[in-house]
Sequence to fold (311 residues):
Amino acid sequence: MNITCVEPLGISEEQFRKTQSTFAAEGHSFSYYMDRREDEAALAERMKDSEIVIISNIKLGSTVLAQCPKLKMLSVAFTGLDHIDLNYCKEHNIYVQNAAGYSTTAVSELAVGLMIDVLRKVTEFDGTIRQGGSRGCFLGRELKDKTVGVVGTGAIGTATIKLLKAFGCKVIAYSRSQRNEVVDMGVEYCDLVTLMRESDIVTLHVPMTAETHHLVGTKELALMKPTAIIINTARGNVVDIEALAKALKEGKIAGAGIDVYEKEPPLEGSHPLLNAPNCIAVPHIGYATREAFDIRAGIVIEHVWNFINKQ
Fold:
């Protein structure tokens, strides 16, 4: 089969050559591009003769897919699939497999890191001291004994709960389904309204679906304590970003830590969250660690082999 990885996955040239040789030994070709191109023309050119394509979070719509008549499989080096036109894939019998699980530790650690950053103003004070300033009268807040509401108790939500329990937090949760593992950790499930009202920190860990689009909007933000903060390392559109920026500007909530947006960075300077107070914004780095990328590369290649072996 003709296999194409349309972008770098953080693996070395040596790793690429080794993978290429392994596929070649079984009669398959493997092409690997060392640069990332997101424009449709470049993607179509790279994919047009491929039967299997490896891609991460680059948007892939029907315009490009229609130019790939040989395509049989997409091995997606990403957890979410909302950037892929799944309807087109289903209609044209293109098998799509994500890389669930590779970034569980990475994302959960960033979620907790953002909580600490917002509570202690770490990023803000880095700028302060570089400008000759000092702490002044500022007092931060600790994670210990805070009530943290975890929205979504899949793998990442559960991993985040484990970290929070180690910090001495009280954790409550809202999720489509309950996990015994979470209940066994002493976590109480509740409805979203209760979670938003009672939490000192709300952290989001749900996929992007029709049901979770703007799951947290004006109404939900209004339920939060004025001292509460919200963390989003899930998907950008799970939160109504305009409503969140307004809540921050009006002091309805105390702060936010955001890693995901309605589109992939870079963002325009006029983006609402970039002009909102007490908002730590990072450019979608939750999944991006050396360890996670090594795991990811192994997963996507394994998925390719599994697909080939079933043909």
Remarks:
- The two ends are 10 Å apart (CA to CA).
